[in-house]
C-alpha cells in the first residue's frame, strides 16, 4: 500500500511543486530510496553522504519522530503518513 508523504517547500522543486506524494515502502530507509528513484536528488537533500538523516531534517511517522523509534529502520505500517520537516533555528 502507498504511504502519503508530506513535503516541505524546499523539496517541492523535485516533485514539480507537489506538496504530497504517494510512495510504497516497508521501512523509512526504503521510503527514501524509493523517493530517490522517483525524484532524483531527493536522497542528497535529506541524507548525509553516509546515508544517515541530515541533522536539520526531521521525519515523522504518523506524528512520531523516527529518531525516537528505529530511525531509518523504522517499519512503516500500512497507510501511514510521513512528514518531512526541516528544523528551524533562530531566536
- The CATH topology turns out to be Ubiquitin-like (UB roll)
Determine the fraction of residues in helical runs and give it as a percent range. Answer: 10-25%
How many strands appear in the DSSP assignment?
5
Distance between the termini: 41 Å
Q: What is the domain total for the residues?
A: 1
CATH class: Alpha Beta
Side by side, the strands of the main sheet go: 2-1-5-3-4
Biggest beta-sheet profile: 5 strands, mixed
Radius of gyration: 12 Å
What class would the helix/strand composition place it in?
Answer: alpha+beta
Provide the succession of SSEs.
EEHHEEE
CATH architecture: Roll
Principal-axes geometry comes out as globular
Could you explain how this protein is built, in words?
- The chain is an alpha+beta fold.
- It has one domain: Ubiquitin-like (UB roll) (Roll), CATH 3.10.20.30.
- It is built from two helices and five strands, in the order E-E-H-H-E-E-E.
- It has a five-stranded mixed sheet, covered by helices on one side.
- A hairpin with a 2-residue loop joins strand 3 (57-61) and strand 4 (64-65).
- The model has no long low-confidence stretch (mean pLDDT 94).
Would you summarize the structure shown here?
With 91 residues, the chain is an alpha+beta fold.
Features:
91 residues, Ubiquitin-like (UB roll), 2 helices, globular
Show the helix and strand layout.
Layout: E1 2-6, E2 20-24, H1 28-38, H2 42-46, E3 57-61, E4 64-65, E5 81-86
Parallel strand pairs: 1-5
Antiparallel strand pairs: 1-2, 3-4, 3-5
